[in-house]
Structures
1.
Amino acid sequence: MFRCGFIGREIVHLLVTEDAAESVLVVDKVPPQMAWLGPKHQTAFKNDIVTFKSANLINPTSVENVFDQHYDWVINAAGETKIGLNESVYAEGITKLSVNCAEAAARHNVEMFLEISDGRMNSSEKTGMTELDACKPWCTVSSCKRQVEERLELIENLPYVILRPGLVYGPGDKHGLVRNLVMGAVYRQLQEKMKLLWDGSLCINTVHVTDLARAALFVCRLGQSKEIFHVVDEARSTQGSLADLIANIFAIKVDYYGSAASHLAKLPRTALPKGVPSA
């Protein structure tokens, strides 16, 4: 099991509490003691069946050294998720890292390799997207995740399943809904209206981290290889419905920039005008 981050720690907790494994190996650069685990996750990581190894998964040799015994399942919940980084950082921290793990899993004949991918592979204003639809990744992170998906198809002797979650939220979240909650608190303190890109109709499918962990355990047990599953809840959330919740919590007002300004925000800084000279 790679990573003791937001999703990985929840999978470890589920494996322990449901007696779903005889042993669990967690691999990450960051040890559990420094990973800001909550109380229930601390308890799970202290369980006798859980062991931890520190490794740099970008280094193939480091990954190979992890496999000192046979493992039935390899669950890759690792990958760079911070926003605003250089593309080369994502290429190494997502694509190279995941391919290293998958190739090592294939060499050691695991029964299932599970890749936690990204749900931002396509979008439609009219209909929901299926696993069979063509992929047009939204951002650099999802683009790198798509590259991983394509590479998995080429690795021989690798039984794999891909999960594409929506916006994951729950205990331990630092990069999803929590950012919006922090923004809501800031705008309340400033006593200003919170303005968001696009509009309220923007679809943002969500999934609780516990539900995602249960989905991971389910597909590993199912054993069907070369499958892709979208994992979202039934809320059919939109930016507007989520913003309304935040507005109610912090007693603030919400507005949107609309399409024109939002498209400008997507442009690189070099493409924007430097200014207008005065007459």
2.
Amino acid sequence: MRIDESGIVFEFNDKLTVDKFDDTGYYQNYFKKLTGGKGVDFILNSDDTLMLIEVKNCAGYESDNRWRIFANNSKRDTTATMVDTDDRDSLDIEIPKKVAMTLACLCGAHSQPQFQTHSNVLKKYFNFIRSNNISSEKNKIKIVLFLEGDFASKKMPQKLILTTLGRKIKEKLSWLNCNIIVENIESHHNNYYTASIIK
């Protein structure tokens, strides 16, 4: 299955169940009525995995987004940028919020059988959480931030940036038993999908 997101082509393994979260009927008709109710880009599951994926393609716009790689909005007001940073957060804050909102939406879809025309797409993901032992190492929820763009500097190589960002996201998601993956096209080695820039 192919899905284009933010200038990146994702080709998902055909054995997976994949949905573009904000295109689902339940999100469109009900959940987005909640102020600030935003979720991740993709949600997918296999026999033993639930994965939430957020895509940020900053390639060519690194200078406007550099502040977002620093934890706790620490550079939001001090880094020169051409974009309005009001109501925006550093990635270590935004991603956990979107994860929490996505999981809340799955719970909401499960709780609304009268809306099954729209809720059934998301209910299957909630049912995975409910019916699998997600507290085990094997069945953990996986959270992926797919961050494209070269933010490297002499002091901070790209690998260190991705690792540090992953650690900060993990701290804010310590309430959830999950694995955190922060990757880009170059570092990506996932069996679930391939990714490439749209040409």
3.
Amino acid sequence: MEKVIFEILSKGIIISTNSSKFHKEATFLLDDDNFNSLNSTLNKIGLYLVGEYGYFYLSKDLKSDEEEKYFNSYKHVILAIAQLKKVFVHLD
């Protein structure tokens, strides 16, 4: 089952407990032992299994050069959002 789940998550697909398509996989990941086992395996290759509110997805730490590249690519969007938050302080 872990191989199947990895193949799904590595494509950027989010597994949800609300999904009829991935119900078996979500049920498997809801078990703490299964979740921790798969997360431990993924940690060895620099990935993290994230489970929040019935949603499961893969994450990874960005290296410093990747962080800089990401920030430079999206800095205009980040700055625009920051400015909008100043104007619309009542919005979250």
